[in-house]
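Deliverable D5.2: sample structural annotation.
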Amino acid sequence: MTANIPAALTQLAEGGNHQSLSPYLTGGGALFILLLLLWITTRFNRDR
């Protein structure tokens, strides 16, 4: 069991990039959320 500890620590130190996390999906989702928040803000900020 102690032989697995250095391997696990090395994997954690190198940053565990998960296979299912796509940078394009993450970036696209963040962009969509920010554009949605911008649209909501401009709808409530109208001078009447």
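Annotation notes: The mean pLDDT is 79. The CA atoms of residues 35 and 41 lie 10 Å apart.
The annotation will be released with the project's public dataset once the embargo ends.
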